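Technical appendix A lists one of the benchmark inputs used to test multi-chain prediction within the project. The record comprises two sequence entries:
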Amino acid sequence: MRAVCTAVGVATMGLWAGGAACGQKQGAGHSVQVKGSDTMVNIAQAWGEEYNRIRPDIAIVVSGGGSGTGIAAIINGTTDIATASREIKEQEKADAKKNSSKDVVEHVVAYDALAVYIHKDNPLTKLTKAELACIYGEGGTCDKWSDVGIDVPGCAGQEIIRVSRQSNSGTYAFFREWTIGEKQDFKLGSRDMQGSKDVVDLVEQTPCAIGYSGLGYKTASVKTACVASNDTDPCVEPTIEGAISGKYPLSRALYMYTLGEPSGEVKAYIDWVRSDAGQVLVEQAGFAPLTKEKRTVAGK
Amino acid sequence: MAKGWSKTRAQVERAKERVIELAIAACGISAVVFVFAIIYFVFREAAPLLFGGLDIGQFLGSPEWYPDSVSNKRYGALALIAGTLSVTVLAMAIAVPFGLGAAIYVSEFSHGRTKEALKVVIELLAGVPSVVWGFIGLVVINPIIIDVFNTAVGLNVLNGAFLLGLMSVPIMVSIGEDALKAVPDTYREAAEAMGATKWQVTWRVLLPAARNGLLAAVLLGVGRAVGETMAVLMATGHAVHIPTSPLDSVRTMTATIAAELGETAKGSDHYRILFVLGALLFAITFVVNLVADVAIRGVRKR
């Protein structure tokens, strides 16, 4: 139902009207709308399905679209919960406050390591933040693989094919902030993919490519680079353990946002997501779960 | 009493007639109302930026599209416009020969069952959802382009144009066939009586006679291609880049609106610039449709 609404909304110019109409709560109290991060869409789906199994009277309606899309939905009041793979911006908080006079409340629900993906034939072993900025940042001069000192077999012209995400992606926002700072921009001409999985798929097929996506999307036929914050630090492979301990530099929290303190079924759901029962699914989806002391007590 | 009955009956019938007439009139008028409501909505959302602070020179002349930059927002749509134009032009280069060829074949050269079967299949082509076309571009055409042209990425102008070409063929065939059908049979008979072959009749008599209708068919196909969103979003690579070859990735205006509108806060500059893009698209399709309409009217006058 939701998927149909979204598809119709996107396909027509009346997107806003369509989105708003679809965002209405269907049967108040019996369904919880969860919208946002594409990185988190798999885990959000898994949570929703499992929760529906133990609470069949509650339908968790999950849709993606990107962290920015989810947060925009919170601002416009068309979703109960927004999922986001980046922190909400001050401006967005202010907009939500202005629209609804309620504060946006943040709930950390898991952690993720953002991995830099390269083709499996790419001999690259280590990437520093400066090299990533040189490849992705506006004004950066690294356009060929030879500029970072390697030769990629099977890559015609040695041109670096930058795979990026659309600007409504929290992964995009997080990666931009880490590599070049929030105030800088990426170079134009990158292939901007719609989803986390699309990035990994394209890098897998393309010897020249480099891309970034959540570690949960890694497959056996693609390589992840070892990343270092600066030249002197040793580089760290992206792992779940590294994300939990914070050793891996590109680790980040995954959030759920609500408008005002959650109550009723929405609160019950978020509490469940943050309990042991919910966090078990996090690990299965390839993300890093909350540490024990940050979880809610099961059955609450 | 019987007389009274039939009188009331006639009154009921008349009232029924009246209601139906009104209902149909309402349907007809509502279409116009909707169109104007949409135009009003798009321009209302675009107006505050369009007439208040948008650098039109930058919008139309710069390829730098940074609507979400924190420090230096730039709304240059040149690369997006170039993306839409390049995909559309190449799509038409593919679709016009196929579409008009098919229209000529269906109208003039095929008969009976073949003709009916062809028409049904071509209509079927029109019913394929654009997201399915996009998916075909992503998983089928992408690897083929990589293999054939030895490029790094198969999501590019060529891929999008191929899909759009196929998508505009049905409308070209049905309008083109109508245009050919509208040529009076006396033309065909006269030409054949003078000893012309079937092809000579088609090429020298029918095509010139139906040229306005065929032009309209092509232009409606163009309108379809310019406005298409989902397929090009998936198949063109979505890279802000002015293409220099059919193998370059591009991003179209429609794809930009679809991809970015969901994240914008209502009323922000980013939101409004997307509506400015929408208004520009509207203007383009309006002009194309207007020309097509004038062309069709030219046909009717004959």
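The longest strand of chain A covers residues 104-119. The domain at 2-111+253-294 of chain A is CATH 3.40.190.10 (D-Maltodextrin-Binding Protein; domain 2). Comparable benchmark entries are summarised in Table A2.
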